[in-house]
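Human: Can I borrow your eye for a moment on a structure tokenisation matter? Separate attempts, laid side by side, tell us more than any discussion would. Could you pick a protein and write out its sequence and tokenised fold? No explanation is needed for now; the record alone will do.

Assistant:
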Amino acid sequence: MTFPATRMRRLRANESLRAMVRETSLTPGSLVAPLFVCHGERVRRPIASMPGHAQISIDVAVEQARKLAALGVGGLILFGIPAKKDPEGREAYDPEGIVPRAFRAIKAAEPDLLLWADVCLCEYTDHGHCGVVRDGVVDNDRTLPLLARAAVAYADAGADLVAPSDMMDGRVGAIRKALDQAGHLDVPIVAYSAKYASGFYGPFREAAESAPRFGDRRGYQMDPANSDEALREVALDLEEGADAVMVKPALPYLDVIRRVKDRFQVPVVAYNVSGEFAMIKAAAQLGWLDGERTALESLTSIRRAGADVIITYFAEEIAPLLGTKRS
């Protein structure tokens, strides 16, 4: 039937009707909050390009974890600021490094909060690249055992999931083998399978102090023009043992999220990255956008595209608007 018998506006007339027929849900449990942990006590160093976020010491991170758990946020992912950087990023896989220490403290305080371990070397190397550099080029195969050591160190410290973000070929298989040999057969791998060489990472690199000292990461991160290649990356990671896959960034790659979900029907994570967060925050501060409404719309669009989980810097401020707090 056509107008006037069919009127699409009938089910939009009020919030109760809109909620009843809403196709896409967004809950605190589908959000994962990133935290930047550093050495020291009672440390909170604000990150200028990411309003509301800071480099924080472990004791402050424990307090933050308690707050996120009370809001019903699904988990948190840690990025470490090491005491010292070196060519091979040794603190990334040191069992007494900043991230393993933080995991142990947070797990003791909030045992039911899911802890995600980002597995990469970029924050820990003095050159800022995601792997070991030989003759000015990242050495893929030399990097793999170091990533595997890091994943085991994080799992030993209480990480519930490990998420390799380095984009080295073969790293999922190397990490799976190392985890299994260390007795962590049940620790899932969430692979950053389609991680693009994006201009949206700028604020993160300030926060994590991880900008490359030379060159860039286009030799191992994906070309933004490619989506068929993303499907190949996902297929390879699943074949190597990934339990879930990730697309990063999120908003410029909603088409990739949808293609991955439709093709593979596995859990898909999307990373709503620092630049996506900073753009909305900056526009809201200038009065050009309703920040809260725009953030909700953005996160909903990522879910609608097919993401099951969203890593986002909006988690703490958006979760209270979504309900499902812990009693």
